[in-house]
Amino acid sequence: MSGYQLKTTKGYEFFEAASALQKSIRRNEEDVALFFAVELYESGYDEYVWKRLRIISSEDIGLAEPFMPSTIQALYQSYVDQKKKKDEKNRPERLFLIHAVLLLCRAKKSRLVDWTLIHCWNTHADRELPIPDYAYDKHNAKGRSMKRGIRHFYEEGTILMNHAEQPREAERKNQALNSSQKQSSTAALFLENSST
Fold first, then answer.
1. How far is the C-alpha of 127 from the C-alpha of 56, rounded, in Å?
2. What's the confidence (pLDDT) of residue 1?
3. How many C-beta neighbours within 10 Å does residue 15 have?
4. Contact present, 177 and 189 (Cβ < 8 Å)
5. Rounded distance, CA 158 to CA 152, Å?
6. Residue 158 Cα distances to 105, 125, 133, 154, 176, angstroms
7. Cβ contacts of residue 79 below 8 Å, gap of 6+?
8. What is the pLDDT of residues 146-161, one digit of tens each?
9. Closest Cα partner for 12 from 28, 35, 31, 34?
10. Mapped to the 3 state alphabet, what secondary structure does the chain carry?
11. Of 94, 153, 154, 190, whose Cβ has the fewest other Cβ atoms within 10 Å?
12. What's the distance, CA 26 to chain centroid?
């Protein structure tokens, strides 16, 4: 039986209904999105709906609202927890589904994540990149062979772009460097003494 023979309670083809759900969320068409979310839910496809909502949170929202995937996951977990209580009369777990659909409809949208995924995977087999020089440090053999130690790591290996410096961060960095150098000197001295 092919997937396109699956039907919803009202007779919609399953994948057409699923497509209507996602496309209406993309267009902020709440009423359409809510209708098809409920239709799929009432047809026994609740887990599929949640799978699509989690995908939408990255595919169609993405970096425009970067915490949306974790929010949708939290709503899904609340849904699962509530459903286990088997309140067949009120079915309060539906609240979390509606909440998720409304959030996704009203969210700022960006397809950057999906466009980037498509490009990266489509081109990966034909691309080669050299290991950048900044990757060689005390954590790998080549970096150690280049005599790149603790100070190099602190000065070069921990460089952050788009850095949002926090209070006392520079002070803590200096403290960490000093204590690391001291610990390294102590370890070297220990090894030297134990080998004699």
1. 29
2. 46
3. 12
4. no
5. 9
6. 39, 30, 13, 6, 12
7. 50, 93, 96, 97
8. 999 999 999 999 999 9
9. 35
10. CCHHHCECCCCCEHHHHHHHHHHHHHCCCHHHHHHHHHHHHHCCCHHHHHHHHHHHHHHHHHHHCCCHHHHHHHHHHHHHHHHCCCCCCCCCCHHHHHHHHHHHHHCCCCCHHHHHHHHHHHHHCCCCCCCCHHHCCCCCHHHHHCCCCHHHHHHHHCCCCCCCCCCCHHHHHHHHHHHHHHHHHHHHHHHHHHCC
11. 190
12. 19
CB-count exposure of residue 21 (10 Å: 0-12, 13-18, 19+): buried
pLDDT tens by residue, 18-42:
999 999 999 999 999 999 999 999 9
Tokens of 60: 């169609």
Residues whose CB falls within 8 Å of the CB of residue 12, separated by 6 or more in sequence, listed in order: 20, 36, 39
pTM: 0.84
Q: Cα–Cα distance between 67 and 103 in angstroms, integer? A: 12
Return the amino acid letter for 141.
A
